[in-house]
Amino acid sequence: MDQPSKPRRAAFAPLDNPVRLLEWPYAPLNWVMALAAIALALAGLDLGYALAGSVSGYLFDIAAYGAETIFAGGLIGLVIVWIRSIEGRPLATAGFRPADAQTIWLMVALAGLWVFSSNALGMIYDPEFRPLGTPDRATALTIAALEPWPLWLHALAVSIFAIAIVTGAVAEEVVYRAWALSSLTPAIGLGAAAIISSLLFAWSHVSIAELTGLAPVLSLVDYFFSGLLFCLLALRAGIGAASVFHTANNMLISVVDFIDGGGDIRYVFEQWAQPRANDDPVQAAAGLALTLAVLGFVYVTLPRQGWDLTAAQAR
């Protein structure tokens, strides 16, 4: 008597029907595409930051941030179209859900607490730390020596930069958290998916050329745990809430730089063009400790609701 054949592993189920190569959650193509999109984000989301910073090229900086806005917005659209039209699944399975007013205010307050605490720690551990309203003298003097911009040009630069901050933060959440987590989890599990997406998120912020000592390595670890924090926010409260927190954090940092620069957007361009990795081990360690503290706070206090990947995988 013939022995019954063993059932095929779920990972190979699409091979029984080629059409299922595009059916989530089985499709290997989907999580390969997710990794490809992350690689694309690594190269493109920081386009404005990478190109900005030349004292003689501020008009080019405006164009660079404009290009980043277009790239990030297009990437968000592509991910949404892929999930809905190609994979044919609800956006809810990728963590898309509206954030209520209470959650939005909580995310803004949490981002403010993070930025404020970072500045407070800076004043404690570094006697030479520049508190709010005290710009980097060399950069400020260099910019002050330039011809002042007309009001219309300055307003245009501020507007484009602000839009780039918003679209860049949202695009990172959509790519690293929404698509990466939902596409990788069925293949490798939620924990591994969160680790991989967070590692790539960290790598996109600290380049290999910066890893020249303890401080940059600690900065890389800090960005990794920041990625895990955003994963937790997305899983607990949805991609919308994580995007609000990410945007508010980046915007508040920019506002601090704007105040430090005396209201000159060119000073903000200079600050965002600086290397992301810290060059002081004590500062880097303090930043990592703060990130871990915020991660623990969110884990303990944020209600367990929102994105249910377990139910989504059971389709």
Silhouette: globular
By helix and strand content, what is the structural category? mainly alpha
Instruction: Return residue spans where pLDDT drops below 50 for at least 5 consecutive residues.
Output: 1-19, 311-315
Helical content stands at 55-70%
Taking the sheet with the most strands, its summary is: none
C-alpha Rg, in Å?
21 Å
Helix count from the secondary structure assignment: 12
Number of domains: 1
3D architecture notes:
The protein contains twelve helices and no strands. Helix 3 (58-86) runs parallel beside helix 6 and helix 8 (214-237) packs parallel to helix 11. It is globular. It has one domain. The chain has helices at 28-44, 47-51, 58-86, 101-125, 137-144, 151-188, 190-205, 214-237, 239-260, 265-272, 281-301, 309-313. The chain is mostly helical and 315 residues long.
List the helices and strands and how they pair.
Blueprint: H1 28-44, H2 47-51, H3 58-86, H4 101-125, H5 137-144, H6 151-188, H7 190-205, H8 214-237, H9 239-260, H10 265-272, H11 281-301, H12 309-313
Concise summary:
This protein has one domain (22-313).
Please give a handful of descriptors for the protein shown:
315 residues
